[in-house]
Specification:
By secondary structure, the chain is an alpha+beta fold. The protein has a single domain, classed as 3-Layer(aba) Sandwich (Aminopeptidase). Helix content is 34%, strand content 22%. It has a five-stranded mixed beta sheet with strand order 1-2-3-4-5, with helices on both faces. Helix 4 links the parallel strand 4 and strand 5. Helix 1 crosses helix 3. It is globular, with a radius of gyration of 17 Å. The termini are far apart. The mean pLDDT is 91.
Amino acid sequence: MDISVTARPADTADVVFLVDLYRKLEAEMVAIHPMWPRADGLDEPVEESFLACLDDAGTRVYLGEIDGYPLGFILGRSRPLLAHEAGVRVAAIRMVFVEQDARGVGVGEVMRDTLLEDFRGTGHQLFDAHVLPGHRLAKNFFEAGGFAARSIVMHHSDLGDGGRRIRAHYRPTVES
């Protein structure tokens, strides 16, 4: 039985799928590092964040599909390098997720490669991908696509819980 694996740009009608897939990604990432939804995920409400991404010319969101059904998403953003590299931009894959049962058949690869080609079409030649330490599958996925580590972000928390309850520690001050 042949399956059709494709990637297509997401649109506003796809936000319901994007939110569902994002929540599954979030659950996986929290298990690896509790800071992920607070530092690397999307702002809440997630629906509005996705709508803002879809409206932003420098951001790309694709859905990965098997036989026309969305089972994954990828989100990439373009940003400029430092001022002394005026005009040079890097495209960064901020998130990629494929449903557990749809892994291993090429959905992630098709999304990654389609996203990179989209950014190449706008003149990008530099690409980053964000991977959490210890996420061996993600590291292997990007290395298979030609990526290599160029930076590692180190983190320390004085909260004693790795940032699991960061909101309890940092409540906004109440103005009188």
